Amino acid sequence: MRWLNAFLFRIRTLFGRSRHLSELDEEIRFHLERDTEKLMGRGLSREEATRQARLRLGGPEQVREQARAEQGWRPGEEFLGDVRFSLRTLRHHPGFTLVAVLSLAVGIGVNAVLYSMLRATWLREVPGVVGADRVVELLVARRGEMMAEWAYPDFTDLQSADAPFRALAGWKEREGVLTTDDNSTFVQVNYVSAEYFEVLGVAPALGRTFSPPEEERPGAPPVVILNHDLWRDRFGSDPAVIGRTIELNRTAYTVIGVGPEGFGGHDAIHSPIDLWAPLLQHPLLKSDDSLLWDRGSAWLLVLGRLEDGATIAEADAALGTVFTSLAREYPETNEERTARVYAFGTVPALNRDLDRIALMSVIALVGLVLLIICGNVAGMVLARSATREREFGVRLALGAGRGRLVRQLLVESFILSLLGGMLGTLLAFWGTSDVFFVRMTGLPDGSFELDASILVSSVVLILVTTLAVGLVPALRFSRPDLVTALKSDTGGGGRRVGRIHRFAASAQTGVTLFLLVLGTLLMRGVGRADHRDPGFEPRGLLVARLDLGQAGCESLEQVLSVSGRMMEAIAARPGVTAVALADGLPLDLVGNFTAVSLPGAAGEDQGSVSVEFTLAAEGFFTTTGATLLRGRGFEPTDDASSRPVVVITESLARRLWPREDGLGQGLRVRRSRDEEMVFTVIGVVRDVSSSRATEDWPQIYLSLRQAFMWPRVVILVRGEGEAVDLVKPVQTAILEVEPGLPIPRVETSESLVARSTQGQRDMARIAGGFGLLALLLSAIGVYGVVAFAVTHRTREIGIRMTMGATRERVLHTVLRDAVRLAVPGLAVGALLALGAAAAMRKELFGLNPLDPVSFVLPAFILLGVVLAASLLPARRASGIQPVEALREE
Question: Both 418 and 337 in a single domain?
Answer without folding.
Answer: no
